[in-house]
Sequence to fold (134 residues):
Amino acid sequence: MLNPFPELLVFGFFAPTLLRLAAAGVFLYVVSAQWERREAMAKIPFPIIGTSWGMGVVWVAVIIELIIAGMLLAGYYTQIAALLGMVAATKYFYFEKWWPTFAPLSRVTSVLLFVILISLLLSGAGALAYDLPL
Fold:
């Protein structure tokens, strides 16, 4: 079948850029949601570490997710950020059932974020990125 808008294929290089910016926006949302809920998150008893680390766990999670969002936003080592983001999206998927304050995304949103990050891992950073070429 013929493409109805063949002129738009010129802009195909910007498709990973849009995915990258969307994933960065999701991570920025997660950071802001976790920052607002930091007091409640510090009181969550985790199976291995308990509540003794409290605010330390919250700070580590917020800083790592902020770094991932910044890397995706700037397009800096996008494939590494995509791998780290896939781990975070998997964390959101499993934590949403037991600790919903720690995972502000629904399970469906976590799966969609995971798929976007797989796409970025396979396709590269797109336009306007400081990344190593594929």
